[in-house]
Amino acid sequence: MLHAIVLRPGADHNGFRRAVRTLIAAGAAPAVVSWNSQGTPDLFDTQAVGEAPAVMLPRPLSEVIEPVVCHHDPERYALLYQLIWRVRNGEPALLEVQTDPLVHRLERMRKAVRRDIHKMHAFLRFRRVALDNAEERFVAWFEPEHFILEAAAVFFVERFCNLVWSIITPLGTLHWDGKQLSSGPPGSRNDAPEEDSLETAWRAYFESTFNPARLNPILMGQHMPRKYWRNLPEAQAIPHLVRTAPARLKDMLEKETAMTVKRDPEKAVAAMLHRQDAPQTLVELNELIAATPPLVPGATQAVLGEGPVNAAVVFVGEQPGDQEDLAGRPFVGPAGQLLSRAMAEAGIERRDAYLTNAVKHFKFEERGKRRLHMKPTVGEVKHYRWWLMKELDFVQPRLVVALGATALLALAGKSLPVTRTRGPMQLDGRAGYVTVHPSYLLRLPDEAAKQEAYAAFVADLRQMRALAA
């Protein structure tokens, strides 16, 4: 017996679901089912469908069905029913077989629909329209490849819930009045406004941020297919910007020599130190550091070095952490506590050593309520390097210790691997020692490896004590 299924045009999720329930109840194999998605459904009445038992499907299968129903391929319903039939009749793990032709084709269709929804979210632009009753409405025109209008609607309702808007496409329309979402028949490009009062300002901003040195039309087309350009406000400016890019780039290069060059901090400090008001003590230097704003905004305060001026050993870390930034003292967080414990085991009194950092301010990124450490860049380390070197001139230690790669970069003036240079070495003319930062020990996931690395760290500290003596 042939089963003829008629579904409404577009993405008929409910109709397909009802059809599957009825077909499965009737034991209809895919070969005896024909699908038509261009007619008016009249095959099932509410009572008959309600009697068909529900069909339980694995979640991965449902995650394929939802997007593929939105695909424009007229065979989509037949392909999906084949998949459902095979999964329920002896092939429960079929979706894991990516080499199966049916699975492969449906996966490509699923990805195509997901991409189309993403493009709609990213490239749809509303334009403001003032109606006769003074109501403000926003209208957008978009040309989707698939029947994604309803699937993409939730995004716009959540993001623009306080506005009154309409989305017009060749496949249908959506209308939101601030409370309720409704759909309508297909529209045309003429139903949407060409521009609004905000677009002149937006194009001016877009042109001002355009960098001709980074022009790459091929890459632009990969990120935003050209078919979407004509519907974007900034698209009118793109051809002109592309044509004038070579001339603008030449102009930029010619003007580059006249641009203000950032001052080299080392030269600036060298000049300062020759003045009569240059810092003559560590206290005066620290007053200057404390009064200097952070290179990367956000830090609470500068974290100064701590310890006696005539200390035999100076320990240099990377930068203050979250707890150090709040307390204003170096090495008081978890890494600092680990360093204090290791120093005690090695016979080094913390109060007799001088502790400081290559970078004097905390650099971080916020994740919720947490401030997560961010590694300083080479330029940031160089910015602070002269403070560190002058600090060492005042302390005059017998041994300076680089804790980790950033401290080694600051002390040596160049990037060197900690693993290869670990141990005694000259650091910018000073007797030095290179070892890992204590935070490295905290990051080791394996407990046995952590204990082994800690023992090696304590051995380094014992050798430092001997060298300093």
Question: How does this model look, in words?
Answer:
The chain has 469 residues and is α/β, with parallel strands linked by helices. 45% of the residues lie in helices and 14% in strands. The strands form 4 sheets. The protein has a 5-stranded mixed beta sheet with strand order 3-4-5-6-7, with helices on one face. The chain has a 5-stranded mixed beta sheet with strand order 9-8-12-14-13, sandwiched between helices. Helix 6 links the parallel strand 4 and strand 5. It is elongated.
Short description:
With 469 residues, the protein is of the alpha/beta class. The chain is built from 18 helices and 14 strands.
Main sheet?
5 strands, mixed
Q: How many helices?
A: 18
- Identify low-pLDDT runs: 43-50, 256-263
Helix content: 40-55%
User: What integer value in Å does the Rg equal?
Assistant: 34 Å
Q: Based on DSSP secondary structure assignment, what is the total number of beta strands?
A: 14
Q: How big a fraction of the residues is strand? A: 5-15%
What number is the mean pLDDT? 86
End-to-end Cα distance: 98 Å
**What is the molecular shape?**
elongated
Strand order of the largest sheet: 3-4-5-6-7
Specify the structural class.
Answer: alpha/beta
